[in-house]
Write a structure and sequence with these properties.
single chain; 421 residues; alpha/beta; pyruvate-formate lyase- activating enzyme; Arc Repressor Mutant, subunit A; 9-stranded mixed sheet; globular
């Protein structure tokens, strides 16, 4: 991984969760439903929640929206008029930065060339395409609704529509998959010269059909040693193909094609989440979600149970469409819960998120125990120290090497206890 000095997350982002799919994938644990009859009510609700958020943050969040991300679920099950209405509401209500990254997830099998062209005209300027694989056998195992041919048609349609900034998702480390099988997927993707690739290992999340099948002994997941081999192979192969491995699962052909929206998450920038199950993070925005939002919220208020102490707020919406709609009808932000992060929690997040990326994390001010652990990791070739010059001074930073990334979870677990002391 190449050194890449850190930036400053001083903008705001907006995430819109579209919880509808034609078919639920057996590995997916994101909130989604296949009953699309509620889409019109959902679109009404999204527009209302956007207005409530605008009311909440008015006068408190000054930065413009520099990214908008429509994720799911399968956002491309929305009609063009529904996408247009949502975007019109966003632009009418929020200050959206010139040149903002506007991403929409689309799935092959749900779009055609005309739909993609119209998305471009509506202002979508980046696509994230849920390919998962070019291999028909893998697509069948993953229960995807599209074929290999439909993947090629979607990529061709995106090109004709003028999308120069797009990426695809690929999944690997499936049961019985070999490195040669996976390399074929990587070669196919690299052959398209795609600007961005997101490569995820298959994970077995509780309460998913795949997890239930695993519990019943119907298949065996990829073992840890093979998963490590897959990870190293993926990183090396894509770097040899000209990609920058800038986050544990993310690869960009050029720096300008890195996901600005996801990078904003990893840098702990402020973001609003709209839609059922969406999450929000607002540094220093105290608010009471139980108070009706009618007119501008008086402020700054305090979060319930926070003893009057403002702080970074993390909130999450209810993962139930009807309950979400009921909250909105009552004039409330549809939070299922929220918390004000303690300094220890903030420190843990900086470790967990920072070590995911090639920007690493700052080490100034870390306890001696963690600095000593990082020294040992560097001696073992699992991490490196570097200096970033900016803001009139130099800061010492630490990032994991490719070998260190293999042990990301255990390294984070080793660092966190010292933070909690």
């Amino acid at each position: 991984m190449t050194e890449d000095p850190p930036g400053k997350p001083d903008n705001c982002s907006l995430y819109l969760h579209v919880p509808f799919c034609q078919k639920k994938c057996p590995y997916c644990d994101f909130f989604s439903v296949t009953d699309r009859s509620m889409i019109p009510m959902y679109v009404d609700g999204v527009c209302k929640e956007i207005l409530l958020w605008s009311d909440m943050i008015s006068g408190r969040v000054q930065a413009p929206m520099h990214t908008l991300y429509l994720g799911g679920g399968t956002p491309s099950v929305l009609s063009l008029s529904q996408v247009g209405r949502i975007l019109e509401t966003v632009y009418r209500v929020f200050d959206v930065a010139t040149g903002a990254e506007i991403t929409m997830e689309v799935n092959p099998g749900t779009v055609d060339a005309g739909y993609l062209s119209d998305l471009r005209r509506l202002g979508i300027n980046r696509l994230s395409i849920g390919v998962q694989s070019f291999d028909p056998a893998k697509l069948s195992f993953l229960c995807r609704i599209h074929s290999r041919e439909q993947v090629f048609e979607t990529l061709a349609g995106a090109d004709r529509a003028g999308f120069s900034n797009l990426g695809i998702d690929l999944m690997y480390a499936l049961p019985d998959e070999t490195l040669n099988m996976w390399q074929t997927d990587l070669d196919t993707a690299a052959g398209f010269q795609l600007p961005h690739l997101s490569c995820y290992m298959l994970t077995l999340a509780p309460a998913t059909p795949f997890y239930d099948q695993y519990e019943k002994g119907e298949f065996s997941p990829c073992d840890p040693d093979r998963r490590s081999d897959f990870f190293v192979h993926t990183s090396q192969a894509l770097e040899n193909a000209g990609y920058l491995h800038y986050e544990v699962s993310s690869f960009a052909r050029e720096k300008k094609f890195r996901s600005v929206h996801n990078t904003h998450y990893w840098e702990r920038g402020a973001y609003l989440g709209v839609g059922p199950s969406a999450h929000s993070f607002l540094p220093n925005l105290p608010a009471d979600p139980d108070r009706p939002v009618s007119g501008r919220q008086p402020g700054p208020g305090t979060m319930p149970g926070a003893a009057g102490q403002p702080g970074p707020v993390r909130a999450w919406n209810t993962a139930d469409i009807r309950a979400w709609l009921d909250h909105l009808a009552a004039g409330h932000l549809p939070w299922a819960g929220h918390e004000i992060l303690t300094p220890d929690q903030e420190a843990m997040e900086r470790i967990m998120l920072g070590l995911r990326t090639n920007k690493g994390m700052g080490v100034d001010g870390l306890c001696q125990e963690n600095q000593a652990l990082m020294d040992r990791l560097a001696e073992q070739g699992l991490g490196v120290f570097f200096h970033h010059n900016g803001g009139g001074g130099s800061t010492r930073r630490f990032r994991l090497t490719r070998s260190g990334m293999i042990h990301l979870d255990s390294i984070v677990e080793a660092l966190i206890p010292a933070v909690m002391k």
